[in-house]
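During the second year of the project, the team shifted from modelling isolated chains to modelling whole assemblies. The rationale, set out in the original proposal, was that interfaces cannot be judged from single-chain predictions alone. As a representative example for this report, we include one of the complexes processed in the last quarter. Its constituent sequences, exactly as entered into the pipeline, are reproduced here:
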Amino acid sequence: MWLLTLTAFAEKLLYVFSLQLTSLWKILIHLYSSFGTLLWSAGGKRSQHGKKRGEIREGTAREEDVSGHSVNPVSVNYHFTRQCNYKCGFCFHTAKTSFVLPLEKAKRGLLMLKEAGMEKINFSGGEPFLHDRGEFLGKLVKFCKKDLKLPSVSIVSNGSLIRERWFKDYGEYLDILAISCDSFDEQINALIGRGQGKKNHVENLWKLRRWCADYKVAFKINSVINRFNMEEDMNEQIQSLNPVRWKVFQCLLIEGENAGQEALREAEKFVISDEDFEKFLDRHKGISCLVPESNKKMKDSYLILDEYMRFLDCTRGRKDPSKSILDVGVEEAIKFSGFDEKMFFKRGGKYVWSKADLKLDW
Ligand code: SF4
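Output from the structure prediction step:
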């Protein structure tokens, strides 16, 4: 009897002890992860405030807080390079620097954006396939889809440097590829500056359309309507290319980029009136995937990050940079983005942007 009671008591003791051990273990794990988070954020803060001059340039953001409410960076355009192999006369994001962030820093910024609410990232330039022959871009695309699990990852490119190998390596991680094409007449493309020697921009467009279908990437076309293409009828070609979206922009002037003394381009001769833009839209009104963007709609309705991960504020007709999100965080930098969230929704900025939801007949 005594022996039985003793055994039962020992069992109870062991049970309670093991429970406590489990709880103790849980507490230890919790403490460890909290400590890790603390260390990580302290490290982040140190690098945010320890200004490494020359590496991340200081922004020239306006000092006043431009809006009281916080903006949600649902859809972000990251122009990680300004370098390009084309010379479009109206280009409004020109090669003013050759800077590109190191890969790990760019990834850190993208993680910060995701934590702040980003759902869609668009990589643009310059020409995004130029840097490191598209490998840098591919790694970011893969990181955003596989690690960050963003619903939508897209690219805007002139298409001239894309190889099939890239689709093989990274196509599965890309939702949408938008190719810039302003004309189906090669002479007009040459006048605009879209093209490189003997390479035919239009033939290349068809090749990319096929690869998008083969590798299951949604295909989109962007066109800038300007003085040289405003009379063109693109109905037939657009219908046969059958993009998921055809974005049609009105040529836009931005001081310091394509207008004014410090600009690398003089786009004044490309500019068209609102009436001419409307006429072009009217001629193509039968195309259901056409998404028009007048200057008014476009100017402030994009969240643009430059090569230093600074938001660019276009409200004053030029691109005023915030401080880098890597230095001050997303919440602080976005106050200086000049972003018109209402116009973003009004212009249909949020749409079905994940290829999983597009239900395409590839
Ligand atoms: S392809 Fe795009 S980035 Fe390059 S020059 Fe033309 S508009 Fe500018």
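The pocket of iron/sulfur cluster is lined by residues 84, 86-88, 91, 93, 125-127, 158, 180 (CB under 6 Å). The radius of gyration is 25 Å.
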